[in-house]
Design goal:
The chain is mainly beta. It has one domain. The chain contains no helices and 5 strands. A 3-stranded antiparallel beta sheet has the order 1-2-3, with no helix packed on it. Strand 4 and strand 5 form a beta hairpin.
């Protein structure tokens, strides 16, 4: 990833659902936003698609410099 391809990731608690959600914004030529196939740019924070799975706690998420894992 180059400096012009930054992806920002936030973990929030949904006000309506009360559940932990991951949201991303940014740009990645590889589509690493987690917002669906071929989504390479997002100018607003949108939910990461987890295939219907839910994050149970903050301990389920491991964030590194170049990757993020969610254990569901």
């Amino acid at each position: 990833m180059t400096p012009t391809e930054l992806v920002y990731l936030v973990m929030v608690i949904g006000t309506k659902t009360g559940r932990i959600e991951l949201k991303t914004l940014g740009q990645s030529q590889f589509g690493n936003l987690g917002q669906g196939l071929d989504v390479k740019t997002s100018h607003t924070f949108k939910s990461v698609e987890l295939g219907g799975r839910k994050i149970r706690s903050q301990a389920d998420v491991c964030i590194g410099l170049d990757n993020t894992f969610v254990v569901t």
